[in-house]
Structure formats: C-alpha cells, structure tokens
Specification:
228 residues; alpha/beta; Rossmann fold; Arc Repressor Mutant, subunit A; 2 domains; 5-stranded parallel beta sheet; 8 helices; 41% helix; elongated
C-alpha cells in the first residue's frame, strides 16, 4: 500500500471529502485546505509528495500557488495535479507552462483522478531515467543513440526535428506538453520550431508512424501527450 502524503487544495468541502475518502482508501495520507494562502503555508512547512490543486480559489488562486511553489527551490519538486473547470483551457496551458504535472477537469470521476495521481507519483520515481535509454512501447522502438525509430521491426525515416519531438514525448508517457514546452524540449536543433509548426511536425510524424500514429494524442486546446 502507498503511504505518500497528498495535500488537497479546494474551497468546496464536498470535493475535499470526496478526495479525502477516495485517496485514503488507496492508502494515501491526505490533508485538505481551502485557500491558496493555507496551501502555500502547508507546503512550505511540510512539503507533501503531491498536491491536488483547484485553480479557482478565493484570494490567492491556484495558478499563483503553482507559480510561487515552482519558483522556490524548497518546493519546486512537489508534483501538482490541477483541478480545472470546463472552459479553463487557457489556465490549464498556463499551469503546465508554470510546471504543473497534469490536470483533471471537473466534474471528474474519482477513478480518473486516482489514476492521474498514481501516474504522476510513478513518473516522479522514474524521473532520473537515462536520456539515452532505448524507449520501447509494444512494437515501437526509439533508439536515441542511433537516432533510429522502428515500428514492427521496420525502420521509420524521420527528420531530425520529428525524431526530437517523438523522443521528447515518449520519454514521459502520459505527460501533457504544451506546444511551447515541446519547442523548448527540441530547441537548439537546426530546425526553427514555432507554435504552428509543432502541429505540422506532429502531422508528418503521425503519417510516418502509420499504424502507431495513435501513440501521439492531441489534448484539445492544450497540446500533445504520448499515450501511456
């Protein structure tokens, strides 16, 4: 059983109780606070293993909490799963740019939230993975050392940038990346990557991957993720 400590930040008591019940049942230790100010105070005094953070908070909102925690070296390592209302796509993008790890849209299924929490905690434990490691998902193999991709044993010829984008996404399955994070991830290569050209590159990449094209998911209004 897990014994990680999770801090839930939401101003709605019924959501606090829903999350406390479901997370505790999975073996997590759960604390709840209702304001951004209380969240900052709690994380700074005792950093949790993960923060479930509602973006719509009275006073200091979730994005400000996220920004403050990621700017402080003592709390920057704490993973954040955002709770967002429908129609808050711009805030989701901002949160991810600030360093949040994932998000769940309200109203949410507790099972979906638990799966996201587990995935983020698992990623954290794998974060030190060697960049040169071969990535293999079913019959898709990405070999960074050789800059080579194979699907069902057949070599797929990718451009330098297409390879960079695929490898960047595949190293962190399940993580949602905005277009600008993808640009940052592959910057420094010969190709000048822009916001719009990321979409063009991904379209080309999917075409070349053929039957494995669905491994790159579009997260509407936000960006892309590699299917877990």
């Amino acid at each position: 059983m897990a014994h990680e400590h999770i801090l839930v930040v939401d101003d709605e008591e019924d959501i606090q109780e829903l999350l406390r019940y479901n997370l505790s049942k999975e073996g997590y230790e759960v604390a709840c606070v209702g304001t951004g100010e209380a969240a900052l105070e709690s994380v700074r005094s005792t950093p949790p293993d993960l923060l479930v953070l509602d973006l719509m908070l009275p006073g200091v909102d979730g994005l400000e909490v996220c920004k403050a925690l990621k700017a402080d070296s003592k709390t920057a390592h704490v993973p954040i799963v955002m709770l967002t209302a429908k129609g808050e796509e711009a805030d989701v993008v901002t949160g991810l740019e600030l360093g949040a790890d994932d998000y769940v849209t309200k109203p949410f299924s507790p099972r979906v939230l638990l799966a996201r929490v587990r995935a983020v905690l698992r990623r954290g434990s794998r974060a030190a993975v060697n960049e040169e490691n071969v990535v293999q998902i079913d019959d898709l193999v990405i070999h960074p050392g050789r800059r080579e991709v194979r699907v069902a044993g057949k070599r797929v010829d990718l451009t330098f940038t297409e390879f960079g984008i695929l490898h960047f996404l595949a190293r962190r399955p399940g993580w949602v990346f905005t277009r600008y994070q993808i640009i940052d991830g592959v910057r420094g290569e010969d190709y000048v990557v822009t916001d719009r050209s990321v979409d063009v590159q991904i379209a080309g990449l999917r075409k070349k991957l053929g039957k494995r094209a669905d491994c790159i998911e579009t997260v509407r209004g936000v960006g892309y993720r590699f299917r877990e």
